What we know:
It contains 18 helices and 18 strands. It has helices at 45-53, 87-92, 98-113, 117-132, 135-148, 153-156, 165-178, 195-207, 219-225, 244-280, 284-303, 367-374, 409-416, 421-430, 447-461, 477-488, 501-507, 528-531; strands spanning 5-16, 19-30, 34-38, 60-65, 69-72, 183-187, 211-215, 228-233, 236-241, 327-337, 342-352, 356-360, 382-387, 393-396, 465-469, 493-497, 511-514, 519-522. The strands form four sheets. A six-stranded mixed β-sheet has the order 5-6-7-3-8-9, with helices on both faces.
Amino acid sequence: MDNGCVLQATQLSVEVGGRLTLEDATFSVRAGDKVGLVGRNGAGKTSLLKVLSGENPPYAGTVTVKGALGYLLQEARPRGSGVEATALSHILSGRGFDEQAQRIEKLRLMLEEDASDRNVDRFSKAEARYADEGGYAAESDVRRITAGLGLGPERVDMPVDVLSGGERRRVELARILFAGSDVLLLDEPTNHLDVDAKTWLTGFLRTYRGALLVVSHDLDLLDEAITRVLHVDEGTLVEYKGTYSQYRKARAADEERQARLAVRQGAEIKRLADLADAMRHSTAKRARVAKSLDKRVDRLESAAVTGPARERKIEVKLPEPPHSGRTVLEVEHLAKGYGGPPVFSDVSFALERGERLLVMGLNGAGKTSLLRILADQSEPDHGTVQFGYGVSTGYYAQEHEGIRAGVNLLDHMRAAASVTDESLRALLGMFGLTGDKAWQDASTLSGGEKTRLSLGQLVAGKHNLLLLDEPTNNLDPPSRSAVAQALAGWSGAMILVSHDAEFVKELAPQRVLLMPDGTLDYWDDSLLDLVAMA
């Protein structure tokens, strides 16, 4: 490992669910390198990052990291020091300032209760030490980063556990960026970020001086922030220089050359095999020639390349929803808070059979909280939720809370519907989860595969009301398109939260609910510009 190299993988193999997703790969990342890790859903990108980060052991080979490493999981939740306190405290823990900040706050409260000389002295010394070591300057840096990521100052001062899922992910990303790591491993860092936050993050990563390895389906980020691409598929890793767009052109050219070579080799193998067959049952001399030709065919076949694997596409079909009453859902005066001021209050609306409602609002406006209440995953502080006659509700949770560790895919599907295993495996296959994956521990799936499994459970459930919270997160473009087309042609009712403007346009909602005010309006395509921002 040379002086400039900060991440080195040597003859690395990665196993997921009994299958090798990577075999005998060697590569290095130097300080200043910006590397995009790309490949279809399920190719093993997330699993590779977990091995590189030390979260999981390699199947074979070694990983060497020089310096501090920051790792953002695809389904990042704040973890480690400071989680039980405020978002600010957790982010400060990235450089060890959290405990000092908590101590100062406790001393301040003691001082308010008892302004004795002893308490004044203890508070003054603790504050002076914090300032001398750069704590207050660090707070300023944290607030600059969180502002860039779209977290307002009032949200940063709130406890981590009352923030929305999207906000908690931003907090964890902010902690990793603030820590100043030598190596950053980021798995889908733009999930839940609006346009402004994505722009800020892209600029931050472009000027980042350490080594960056990022998995993302955000084409703008890949084009703007990276200079190399590692393509992983079918157990192999191939490196390309340049941006994502340049990689796509180079990859297409490689696949075209590989396809032509495979055709030529196949034709030559067939020619020699046919010639050997023609000579095999003739004279002894010709039989010896045929045997020699057989050996040449064997050598050519062992060294032959295969044509490039086609981009895997899925075709999703949703069953017709069971019949329900005309009014599917009535919500009256709903309110929800988490110990402080309410996140939203006095939200009222009704949903008709077959109607599509888009819920919009900035991060922290209560979109996920609302859907969790409707899905009976959380209790409101005030108000009522009344479902209509014959309504069956299916809930897609953005953080895959329904995916259980230690439970295989088929058992997840069995819990969603009482039909034959053959039917359930056919549904898994429709979502590209084929073969032995049915027996794989669902927690070891990639984020895109977890999304597909969750959507498969919704299809199996034969619902007539779907509650969808960011259903296209982690999906590659072909899967996203297939899911959008299937939902667009479905006749059931739907309540949707999404930052994906193209997805929302294809679904064509009739109405929009603006949170946290609960303002209800008719949908207009002029609102599409706001979807990615809210």
